[in-house]
Amino acid sequence: MEQLTQRLLNDFQHNFPLNSLPFEKIARDLNTTTDTVLRELKQLQEKGAVSRVGPVFRPNTVGVSTLAASAVPVTELETIAAIINQFPQVNHNYEREHHYNLWFVVTATDHQDLEQTLKRIEAKTGYPILVLPLLRDYHIDLGFRMRLDEQSSIKVMAELPTCQHEETLPDRTQDAEDLIEVIQGGIPLVARPYQAIAQRLGCSERSVIEQLNSMINSGVIKRLGVVVRHHELGYRANAMVVWNVPDARVDQLGEQLGRQDCVTLCYQRPRLLPQWPFNLFCMVHGSDRKDVIDCINRMIDGLGLETIEHDVLFSGRRFKQRGARYRVRN
């Protein structure tokens, strides 16, 4: 990649400027022009390397969501995946190497809407669903960081996890709800994006910036910036590693796993016995399958996990991947 492209992808996944001309600020940092920055981001979106420029919301703060899975005959997998993809509440849908081979994420405005959506998916597909809601997060969506000085090997630059699951978030106003609906798919790639958002909402640009700043400070927005798509940037292999951890050790191991350099997500979800004994999940990304396996082995050896039951679910086909839609209008 050219240096400009690399820095756009690497340096602006977090702490996106909150001023009237954010892309001008980025252009100054990169010693280029606003038009160049906007053109490059639009091209990266068209190529699929960038999903959007916008917020990543902390789970279950602007709506509710759950991870779900079904066991589907291989011959029907594409058909069932296509049925599930028709639901706007589904934002991720992957094949994984396991008896439960179709994994998807469902978001909704509230628990009742979520439950109804899951029932409708079951009814349309004809297959039962494992429902595995988030219980605690140890390391979630802090971005894919690239080392610019190591062109030959892509490596996740891990950040210390911020465990905020005990925190109580403030109630949001209707203005904030309207803002979430407008920006959930990303901010517009124009010179003054917050002004464009304000015009849609019928408020001031300053008000939009202040609301975004408030949601970041309160933890509703985990990060604001460039949201990349890992596969297109060289993370060709990834696996969901699930662990059957004694309940008394979940927090300890969750924090430890979240600090590993190749772990991009780590969270606790419920067991569903007898079919699903695992309660701790982490996502491992690497340049290839061997890279992922090597990381898992290092974790097992380094953290003394030899006696902990686990399974490795490598990702296969990606049937759907986009930002969550927390506010879906009928």
Name the poorly predicted regions.
147-169
The largest sheet, given as strand count, sense and whether it forms a barrel, is: 9 strands, antiparallel
- Work out the helix count: 10
Strand order of the largest sheet: 5-2-4-3-11-8-10-9-6
Helix proportion range = 25-40%
The portion of residues forming beta strands comes to: 15-25%
Overview of the structural elements:
The chain is of the alpha+beta class. It contains ten helices and eleven strands. It has helices at residues 3-11, 22-30, 34-47, 77-85, 111-125, 174-183, 193-201, 205-218, 250-258, 289-303, and strands at residues 50-57, 64-70, 90-96, 102-108, 130-132, 136-140, 221-228, 237-244, 263-268, 280-286, 309-321. The strands form two sheets. A nine-stranded antiparallel sheet has the order 5-2-4-3-11-8-10-9-6. A two-stranded antiparallel sheet has the order 1-7. β3 and β4 (102-108) form a beta hairpin. α7 crosses α8. Residues 147-169 have low confidence and may be disordered.
